[in-house]
Design brief:
The chain is mostly helical. The protein is built from 9 helices and no strands.
């Protein structure tokens, strides 16, 4: 029995001599990954908290009607957290405030950052629509029409098409406007549908069969 124990011990020594270094390296690597992940998660949490604080401060400034302070904080938020959803939401809030104060071009310029820098943001489609509306209010119908392209899929598509029709009317393109309104009617409903129908009938058009 003692002989068997010695053989087993010798086998363990031989295995450790051959593979022990690799085991230690692997253990260190695993530990480094775990610690690195913990540090990365902690860093992400800190970044999210910082972005959230900036967003809250921007909303507070807008609530106090201090748009200058909101704009300054928004620039800081964009610089530090350009990919954060808080930067997108803050941009929409600042743009909405500018539009409500009768400064549509300022709103459009603010939204340009979002549509350019956060191309994968789920809020980008909303930003494009709001930017086109702001440009329309600023009197730049051509630019507004450009912003609407490409037309998105999903629930906002009818609103894009309706606005496209409005812009085509303003630019003197009634046939293009009729086509846009007809497409909008394919998926719009409720009071909005009635409004689009009125616009279409005013041009001498009718819903597509």
């Amino acid at each position: 029995m003692a002989y068997d124990d010695e053989e087993q011990l010798e086998a363990i020594r031989a295995w450790w001599h051959r593979y022990g270094r690799m085991v230690i390296i692997a253990a260190i690597a695993v530990l480094a990954v775990v610690l690195g992940w913990q540090q990365w998660t902690a860093w992400q949490d800190r970044q999210a908290a910082s972005a959230s604080a900036d967003y809250a401060a921007i909303l507070a400034s807008l609530n106090d009607d201090d748009r200058e302070a909101a704009g300054n904080r928004l620039r800081s938020l964009r610089e530090a957290h350009a990919d954060s959803p808080y930067a997108a939401m803050a941009t929409l809030a600042v743009a909405t405030a500018a539009a409500s104060e009768g400064e549509p071009q300022v709103a459009a310029d603010a939204l340009q950052w979002l549509t350019t820098h956060q191309t994968d943001s789920p809020m980008r489609v909303v930003a494009r629509l709001r930017q086109a509306e702001a440009l329309q209010a600023a009197g730049d119908d051509e630019a507004a029409l450009t912003v609407l392209e490409p037309l998105p899929s999903g629930p906002l598509r009818p609103r894009f098409l309706e606005l496209q029709g409005d812009l085509e009317v303003a630019l003197g393109n009634p046939d293009a406007a009729i086509d846009a309104y007809q497409q909008a009617l394919e998926s719009v409903s409720g009071q909005r549908r009635s409004l689009v129908e009125i616009k279409l009938f005013d041009l001498g058009g009718a819903p597509a069969s």
